């Protein structure tokens, strides 16, 4: 090579190294970063949960484990129709309860006899998991599974013998049905159950030790390395966002736990009645507005949302649930349809170099990002829109591949020649809980994404973002301005509500334990309750005249405490106050995580007296009821 040429090469090398060092060098990751699988998963945003099994036929949330497999016999199950409904609503996948706590396996497993081959459906040749998995494959929809660790049917539950059964079930589900995008390990462990006829309580001590989740995680990683593991005593990739109401319990939301990146998932049923389908649930569906609140306080805080729709006894989704899902799906689509900041001119207080310029915020590309100089303490970026525009939702995303950094941000808009704060910066120690902050919330963490719905719409052509606190130099990939659409109310769906009306309580009198407080369970107020200092405990209602009764509803305390919530009940009726007939007895399952109204129907019976027993209760030896309704005519 001639020396001129050599010199040219040398120059080129110097220029290249120089640009990398001075202009284009990206920041180093900060703290734990998500795996590729977690990044992909977070971008799914939301998907369906499907609870369908023997509970569908027994009107229960938690089956005891002694249910007859013959009950499972949907006349019209159509996995493809269900998957299509989800997909059309904009969901990205679904997770099916292959086995719930009652232990009934809805696929032809070799691990236990208590499975679908014992059901009359398709002459014992049915496989619900297969039908869902195939329908998902056909429609390019992600498929996942829920396999309850707690098994109230298996005689060996609580002993080493059950583990062989359980690991076999994991193996079957992960090897026979194609890719599983997520597997759910529920934390519920209520204690008592059928257990092969023993009908007793079983204590497993630490779930992590008993199930040996370290082993379970290794098993899954070797069978399906791309599968997101939910739960598993904190050993998985994702965990519960802390309520079954569908909000991420706390905002600011950090994806960092024990020096690892952990994704959060908020779960909720679309129907107030619970996770499984219940007769007459049509009138209890959550409205599209409510679902938007759920979305903003889950996905909008940086978590994923799993929304449950339960097939009914025919195997079809409930029309009221579908109508609400569709209306919410439309709202969400419209919300995200137009980003008014797209292509806007952006000017930053500083940038790290050409590759990290402010224009990356509005290029609609999720991987590119704006990064200011390390020395810029409160970096700011100003967007100039082409013309004055009205918006009421702001969306921000961090480049999470480099870790989660931002602790607080502020957004201002130029209104009448002055900067007006439209999102106030979050202060240390402040947090949002439940659905607060859905409108007019502050700017705390960003993470995968944050959606903030302003207290009121703003019209402007200049918007300014300031990162007020950050653990490391911020790397922001998107800054979007959106508009919340109006609600198109779902078409009213005729509900096949079977329960007769709630009887009016005027003139009733009460006796039994803490009888003076019994009226508080009939006062129509959720914040007052019947509370007896012991369990078992009961009270008697004298309705003063005979009615034909057909059911009742129990609303557990709503004050955030679980103390004295009735977990097992008995109801007796009488016409004379001395001869009693038991009309219903059972369990209120899952109240700890989902303390919603429990509606119980029984065969019609004439009675003047109603006696409610709390025979077992959560946490301590009290009994309580926020509200009781008696149905009849
Ligand atoms: C809970 C369970 O106990 C419920 O029955 C339901 O499956 C819900 C998704 O998780 O922990």
Describe the structure.
It contains 10 helices and 26 strands. It has helices spanning 3-24, 36-42, 55-58, 79-88, 128-138, 160-176, 207-211, 213-223, 288-296, 319-337, and strands at residues 46-50, 93-99, 142-147, 182-185, 192-193, 200-201, 228-231, 238-240, 256-257, 260-261, 263-269, 304-308, 345-348, 380-398, 406-415, 418-423, 450-470, 476-482, 509-512, 530-532, 537-555, 566-574, 581-587, 598-617, 623-625, 627-632. It folds into 3 domains: 36-337, TIM Barrel, CATH 3.20.20; 345-482, Sandwich (Jelly Rolls), CATH 2.60.120.260; 509-632, Sandwich (Jelly Rolls). Strands 7-4-3-2-1-12-11-8 form an 8-stranded parallel sheet, with helices on both faces. Strands 13, 14, 15, 16, 17 and 18 form a 6-stranded antiparallel sheet that branches. Strands 19, 21, 22, 23, 24 and 26 form a 6-stranded antiparallel sheet that branches. The protein is of the alpha/beta class. The radius of gyration is 28 Å and the shape is globular. Beta-L-fucopyranose binds at residues 61-62, 186, 188, 267, 275, 590, 593. Beta-L-fucopyranose binds next to loops.
């Amino acid at each position: 090579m001639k020396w001129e040429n050599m010199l040219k090469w040398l120059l080129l090398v110097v220029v290249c190294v120089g640009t990398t060092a001075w202009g284009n060098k990206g920041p180093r990751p900060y703290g734990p970063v998500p795996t590729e699988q977690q990044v992909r998963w977070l971008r799914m945003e939301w998907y369906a949960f499907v609870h369908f099994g023997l509970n569908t036929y027994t009107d229960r949330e938690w089956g005891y484990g002694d249910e007859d497999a013959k009950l499972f016999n949907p006349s019209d199950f159509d996995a493809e129709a269900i998957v299509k409904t989800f997909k059309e609503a904009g969901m990205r996948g679904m997770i099916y309860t292959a086995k719930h706590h009652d232990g009934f396996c809805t696929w032809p497993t070799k691990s236990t006899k208590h499975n679908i081959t014992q059901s009359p459906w398709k002459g014992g040749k049915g496989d619900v998991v297969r039908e869902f998995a195939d329908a998902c494959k056909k429609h390019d929809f992600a498929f996942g599974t829920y396999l309850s660790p707690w098994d109230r049917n298996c005689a060996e539950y609580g002993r080493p013998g059950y583990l062989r059964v359980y690991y076999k079930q994991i193996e079957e589900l992960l090897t026979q049905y194609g890719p599983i995008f997520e597997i759910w390990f529920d934390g519920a462990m209520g204690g008592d159950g059928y257990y092969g006829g023993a009908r007793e309580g079983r204590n497993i001590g630490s779930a992590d030790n008993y199930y040996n989740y370290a082993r379970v995680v290794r098993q899954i990683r070797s069978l399906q390395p791309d599968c997101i593991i939910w739960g598993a005593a904190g050993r998985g990739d994702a965990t519960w966002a802390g309520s079954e109401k569908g909000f991420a319990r706390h905002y600011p939301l950090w994806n960092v736990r024990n020096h690892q990146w952990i994704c959060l998932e908020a779960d909720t049923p679309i129907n107030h009645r619970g996770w499984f389908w219940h007769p007459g649930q049509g009138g209890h569906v959550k409205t599209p507005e409510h679902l938007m609140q759920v979305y903003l306080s889950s996905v909008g805080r940086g978590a994923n949302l799993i929304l449950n729709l339960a097939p009914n006894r025919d195997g079809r989704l409930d029309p009221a649930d579908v109508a609400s899902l569709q209306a919410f799906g439309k709202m969400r689509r419209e919300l995200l349809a137009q980003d008014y900041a797209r292509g806007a001119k952006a000017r930053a207080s500083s940038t790290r170099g050409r590759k990290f310029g402010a224009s990356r915020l509005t290029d609609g590309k999720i991987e590119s990002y704006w990064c200011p100089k390390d020395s810029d303490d409160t970096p700011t970026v100003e967007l100039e829109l082409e013309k004055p525009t009205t918006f009421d939702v702001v969306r921000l995303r961090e480049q999470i591949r480099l870790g989660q950094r931002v602790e607080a941000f502020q957004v201002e808009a130029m209104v009448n020649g002055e900067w007006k704060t439209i999102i106030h910066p979050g202060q240390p120690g402040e947090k949002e809980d439940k659905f607060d902050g859905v409108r007019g919330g502050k700017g705390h963490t960003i993470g995968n994404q944050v959606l903030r719905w302003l207290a009121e719409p703003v019209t402007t052509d200049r918007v300014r973002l300031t990162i007020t606190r950050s653990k490391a130099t911020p790397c922001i990939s998107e800054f979007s301005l959106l508009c919340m659409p109006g609600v198109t109310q779902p078409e009213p769906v005729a509900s096949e509500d079977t329960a007769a009306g709630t009887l009016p309580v005027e003139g009733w009198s009460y006796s039994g334990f803490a009888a003076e407080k019994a009226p508080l369970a009939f006062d129509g107020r959720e914040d007052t309750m019947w509370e007896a200092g012991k369990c078992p405990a009961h009270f008697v209602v004298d309705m003063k005249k005979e009615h034909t009764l057909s059911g009742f509803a129990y609303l557990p305390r709503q004050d955030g405490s679980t103390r004295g919530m009735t977990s097992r009940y008995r109801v007796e009726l009488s016409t004379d106050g001395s001869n009693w007939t038991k009309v219903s007895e059972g369990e209120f399952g899952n109240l700890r995580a989902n303390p919603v109204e429990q509606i119980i129907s029984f065969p019609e019976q004439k009675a003047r007296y109603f006696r409610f027993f709390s025979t077992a209760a959560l946490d301590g030896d009290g009994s309580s009821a926020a509200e009781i309704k008696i149905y009849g005519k």
